[in-house]
Amino acid sequence: MTNYIAENRANWDARAAAHAAAPDYCVEKLIADPTFISKVVRFDRALLGDIAGVRGLHLQCHIGTDTISLARLGGIMTGLDFSPASLAYARDIACRAAVPVQFVEAEVYEAASVLGHGNFDLVYTGIGALHYLPSISTWADTVADLLAPGGRLFIREQHPLVSALADPMPAGQLVIDQTYYERPEPSTWIISGTYVETDAKIERMPVHLWNHGLGEVVMAAIASGLLITALVEHDSVPFEALPGEMERVGDSDEWRLRDRPWRMPMTYTLSAIKPAP
Question: N or C terminus: which one in the chain shows less Cβ crowding within 10 Å?
């Protein structure tokens, strides 16, 4: 039986150095400028609101640039990831930026047993995280277990419709050819390179992904006892998700379809709270 977790972890370990050095992650700017926050968190800021003094947990934090940015907004942040190579860079970046963040190595489903139950006012997840998890209901139960009463879940994630598009995509067309809903077995790809601009040579490795339909995410959160407070679909994403078919949105770090961007959402934001007993 394939060890999906081990192979996905090896994939992230292999890419951590390239990501830490890539212009897309703006690591040196994050270190040099104490006011700088990552492009993902900049986009989230209006919907995220004031997090000063909030005990926050960033699940699947990778090299920690978004976690550090949330700490700069006043959150008392912990970052959790299963990749030791990624966390080594996260700790180094936080140290050099003089931002106090605790980084913990663990798998998402083990987070509550490692970090305790009900210890967080905010659980945050960023783009490109959920499709590495086989069960969205187990994820939602984990989030609910981590949150204190009155605590909040906040995610901005790639829309599952994007993940269902054909790869490669016929030029100028939007064709659905992959699964939209969660399936027991993952979609497995053999990939080389990575999603950021880099000269690093990265060997071909397997990666295993599970798509989760938007309704599945919403209903998993509800079934875990969370109350949905917001669900917003966006026509943009902070990287060129469909190369050759997208353009930058003004001077921002966001990309959207060049041709009729209203045809489909690219990302979504979901907020939910854990009600007090």
Answer: N
